[in-house]
Amino acid sequence: MTGRTRIKICGLRTEADVAAAVDAGADAVGLVFVPGSPRWIDAEQAAELVCALPPLVDSVGVFADAPLEEVIALASDACVGMVQMHGCEDRRLLEVVRDDFAVIRAVEFSADAIAAWGSDAGIDMLLVDGSAGGLGETLDWKSLAAHRGRITRPLILAGGLTPDNVGDAIRLVRPYAVDVSSGVEIERGVKEPALIRAFCDAVREADLSNRAS
After folding, report:
1. What's 40's DSSP letter?
2. Which listed residue (27, 129, 179, 200) is catalytic?
3. Across the chain, what does the average pLDDT equal?
4. DSSP for 65-113?
5. What is the DSSP letter of 12?
6. Is 10 known to be catalytic?
7. Is residue 18 scored above 50 in pLDDT?
8. How does pLDDT run across 73-96, given as a tens digit for each residue?
9. How far apart are CA 196 and CA 213, in angstroms?
10. What is the rounded CA–CA span in Å between residue 213 and residue 46?
11. Superfamily of domain 6-212
């Protein structure tokens, strides 16, 4: 791994959430457009949050099995810079979305998923999760590390990360970025600024440790 591990705080819903993420040093924020999620937000609210971001903090719209027209419309109305596809979307849909947005392909960790998407030139980044998404389930980092050489797209590690375990995950997997949602919440959908800061601090400490080793 070179440089530093990027940080995405996902599932933000309020201006206070965004301010906490930015102040803690997050590189990207995730806005969830998945109906039924406790972190769901509408496009108008999302656009207001995106407008509050500093220029170098990225915004990511998160979708799961939404129709193509809905993805394009919501992402455009919300003014996000990237789209994260967290369902069973096929490559053709991703190709069309990628005409307008950078695309993050999210998958639940398995050898088959890594084989299918790890080197796919039709995506910009690969997010590997411990579940279908948003459940806070940790994956087997050692198993993922064993497949690391098969992943040539920038790797985002997600799933059950917390301020207490993210350092170990970074040291084992060496991802391009880490993604957290439930691990910085006091209840589902409710972010805690102190946990966001602790998470970002833990990522930076892990990076320092890696550079020293």
Report:
1. B
2. 129
3. 94
4. S--HHHHHHHHHHHT-SEEEE-S---HHHHHHHHTTSEEEEEEE--HHH
5. -
6. yes
7. yes
8. 999 999 999 999 999 999 999 999
9. 26
10. 41
11. Aldolase class I (3.20.20.70)
